[in-house]
Amino acid sequence: MYQTKYHRPASIDDAVAALAAAEDGKFLSGGQTLLATMKQRLAAPTDLVDLRGIPGLSGITVDADGVTIGAATIHADVASSPEVAAAIPALAALASHIGDPSVRNMGTIGGSLANNDPAADYPAAVLGLNGTVITNQREIPAEEYFVGLFATALEEGEIIKAVRFPRPKRAAYQKFAQPASRFALVGVLVAETDDGVRVAITGAGSDGVFRAETFEEALNGDFSAGALDGASVDADELMNDIHATPEYRAHLARVLAQRAVKAAG
C-alpha cells in the first residue's frame, strides 16, 4: 500500500502552496472519481489537498441575473434548493439525477467540472446555459473551459471557486443513463437564451461535451420538437464503446433533444 499525505488547508492560498510543495499532489473535492481511481491503483498521488473545508467555497446564491454555485457545493444541495428550482428548474433537475444518493451527497460541482468526465452531467449544464467557471485566478467562459476528454482550461494550481449560470428564458435536460454507473450514455440540455438557442450534448462526443449546432439552427427558427425531425448530429464525431455505437448515440441525441424541448415548454 502506498503512502499518501493528507492536507486540509484553511484557505485557497494554503491549498495552492500545499500542491506546489508536493511531489505529485492532487486536489480533492468530492472524491467520487479520484478516490475510486486510487482504490483501483490507477493513481497514486503523494499528497491529497482537500478543498472542502475552505470557507466560502460552498453555497448557492440566486439573484435577478442567475445562479452562482460554490465549487464545494454537493449535488444534493443543488437538487433540493427551492431557489435553484425557481430560477433554473433544468439545473435542479439535472443535479437530482447525478449518480445515486451517495454520490449526490458527496460529489461537488467543482470536482465534476475539474475532472470533466465525457459522460458527466454538469458539463452539459455549463455549456448549454452559457455558464462561467470562476477560479482563484480568472473567469473562464464555458466556450473556453472544455478542451477535450478529461481536459479543461485550468492551469496547474488553479482552483475552481464557483460557477455562475445566467437565467435562460426556458431550458430542460434529458438523459439516457447507463444503468450501472448512472453516467449519461447521452445527455442533452436545451436552453433558449437571450442570445438564441443553445444545445449541449454530453456522454456522446469523442472529445467530450459539445454544442449541437444543427439542432440549434433548427430550434432558432422553430422552438418545437418537430423542428428537429430532420436534424441530426454527425455520428463520425461520436464515441463508440461497449455501451453504444456512434449511430445509436446520434439517434438518442435527437430523441432526447426533442424531449428536452417538450419539457422546456
UniProtKB/TrEMBL annotation:
InterPro entries: CO_DH_flav_C, CO_DH_flav_C_dom_sf, Diverse_Substr_Oxidored, FAD-bd_PCMH, FAD-bd_PCMH-like_sf, FAD-bd_PCMH_sub1, FAD-bd_PCMH_sub2, Mopterin_DH_FAD-bd. Keywords: FAD, Flavoprotein, Oxidoreductase. Residues 1-170 form the FAD-binding PCMH-type domain. It comes from the Bacteria. Signal peptide: none annotated. GO terms for molecular function: FAD binding; oxidoreductase activity. PANTHER family: XANTHINE DEHYDROGENASE SUBUNIT C-RELATED. This is Carbon monoxide dehydrogenase. It comes from Paracoccus zhejiangensis.
